[in-house]
Amino acid sequence: MMLSSPIDVMPEGFIGIDGGEIFLLAEAFETLIREFTAGCVEGTLAEALAGLNCMYEDL
Questions:
Q1: Model's pTM, two decimal places?
Q2: Which helix (H) or strand (E) holds 22?
Q3: 24 exposed, middle or buried (CB, 10 Å; 0-12, 13-18, 19+)?
Q4: Facing residues of 2 across strands?
Q5: pLDDT, tens digit, for every residue of 12-28?
Q6: Dist CA 55 CA 31 (whole Å)
Q7: Are 14 and 7 in contact (CB under 8 A)?
Q8: CA atoms of 7 and 52, how far apart (whole Å)
Q9: Strand 20-24 and strand 13-17: pairing?
């Protein structure tokens, strides 16, 4: 998964998954990033990311 923030040329943020891209309005992108970041602090997502970090060491 790749997250790209809004830039000057394109006001939308986008998510890339296996070559596909999902474009979001800037406000929706900000909400997604805020929720994703909050989920990375504790809980199931945090545990999954910690496990992936142990395997790949670049998250």
A1: 0.54
A2: strand 20-24
A3: middle
A4: 16
A5: 676 666 667 777 787 88
A6: 29
A7: no
A8: 29
A9: antiparallel
